[in-house]
Amino acid sequence: MAKIKLTKNELKKQKDALKMFRRYLPTLMLKKQQLQAEIRTTELRIKELLEEKERVDDSFKPWIGVFAEKRVFTPELVRITSIKTAQGNIAGVVIPLFRGAEFETAPYDLARTPLWLDMAVEKMQQVFLLDLEAQTLEEQRRRLDKELRITTQRVNLFEKIKIPETKGNIKKIQVYLGDQQTSAVVRGKIAKRGMERAAQ
Fold first, then answer.
1. Residue 74 maps to which CATH number?
2. Which terminal CB of the chain, N or C, has fewer other CB atoms within 10 Å?
C-alpha cells in the first residue's frame, strides 16, 4: 500500500477515487454477466453444430462402402475456395462471425460416375460448413473467455482491493484530521486560559 498524505486535499482525492470505483464497478459486473451469458450461448451453439455433424456422419455410414468404389470419391473432389466472415461486437470484444463458404467441385463425367456422387458432394459441403462454423464459434469463445478473465480481474481488483483500501485511507485521514482539530481546540483553550491568567 502506498503511503498517503494526511491532508484535506488527499481526503478529497481519496473520496473522488472511491466515488469513481463505485461508479465503474456495476458496469464491470454487468459486462462480466453479459460475457458469461454469451459464452454459454456460444457453447450451446457449438454443441448443436457437433450434434448436427454427427447426424450427417451417421447418414453417411450406409454409403461408406460405395465411397471406396473404383476411387470415384477422392478428397480433391470438393475444395473450399473462400470462407465468408464478418466482424461482430459483444461487450466491446471484436468477434468473427461465420457467413458461409464457397466450394469448387472437381469436374467429373456424369456418364461414368455413380449417381450417388452428387449427393456425396452435397453432404461433404454440408460437413465442411458445419466444421467452419464450429471453428469460428471456437474463436469467438476464446476471445470472450480472454475478455471475461480480464473483466473478472478488474471486478476483483475494485471489489477486494481498491474500494476497501480507499475506504481505509479515508478513515485514516479523517481520524488524523479529527485528532488535529481536537488538538488545535485544546491548544486554543490552553492559550486562552494562559492569556486570561496573564491579564489578571
1. 1.10.287.3240
2. C
